[in-house]
Amino acid sequence: SVALVYWSISILIEQVGRLIENRMAIKAPEQARNERLGELR
């Protein structure tokens, strides 16, 4: 049962992380582009 709880929590954390990444990408796409251009330079 402990393994099941740990497994479900890990999936929840992964889903929350994806939501945060999506929101960050939507909020600041220009910043991400500038960072990529800076890395290329």
Main pleated-sheet profile: none
Query: Element order, helices and strands?
Result: HH
Which regions are unreliable across 5 or more consecutive residues at pLDDT < 50? none
Helix content: over 70%
What is the overall silhouette?
A: elongated
Domain module tally:
1
Give the terminus-to-terminus CA distance.
51 Å
Mean pLDDT: 81
Rg, alpha carbons? 16 Å
What structural class do helix, strand and pairing data support?
mainly alpha
Number of strands: 0
Q: Roughly what fraction of the amino acids lie in strands? A: under 5%
Q: Total number of helical segments?
A: 2
What would a concise description of this structure say?
This is Amino acid ABC transporter permease. This protein has helices at about 1-25, 30-40.
Note down, in words, how this protein is organized.
By secondary structure, the protein is mainly α. The protein has one domain (2-39). Helices cover 93% and strands 0% of the residues. It has helices at residues 2-27, 29-40. It starts with a helix and ends with a helix. It comes from Streptococcus pyogenes. This is Amino acid ABC transporter permease.
